[in-house]
């Protein structure tokens, strides 16, 4: 399990970005009324 380091709300795309240890990020936003997420 990775520790949450930083939260950007809103981020540059108007969504939410969660930054975890080891520089992993979870980006969440609404597109056409649906929740879309990307974990990198």
What is the secondary structure topology, with strand pairs?
Blueprint: E1 4-8, E2 16-20, E3 25-31, E4 34-39
Could you characterize what this model shows?
- The protein has 40 residues and is an all-beta fold.
- 0% of the residues lie in helices and 57% in strands.
- It has no helices and 4 strands.
- It has strands spanning 4-8, 16-20, 25-31, 34-39.
- It has a 4-stranded antiparallel sheet, with no helix packed on it.
- Strand 2 and strand 3 form a beta hairpin.
- The radius of gyration is 10 Å and the shape is elongated.
Give the class from helix and strand content and strand pairing: mainly beta
Percent of residues in helices: under 10%
Strand content: over 45%
Strand order of the largest sheet: 1-2-3-4
Gyration radius from CA atoms, angstroms:
10 Å
Distance between the termini: 15 Å
Instruction: Outline the low-pLDDT stretches.
Output: none
Number of strands: 4
Kindly state the mean pLDDT as a whole number? 94
**Helical element count?**
0
Give the H and E element order: EEEE
Largest sheet: 4 strands, antiparallel
Gross morphology is elongated
């Amino acid at each position: 399990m990775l520790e949450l380091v930083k939260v950007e709300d809103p981020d540059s795309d108007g969504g939410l970005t969660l930054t975890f240890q080891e520089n992993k990020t979870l980006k969440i936003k609404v597109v056409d009324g649906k929740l879309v997420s990307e974990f990198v």
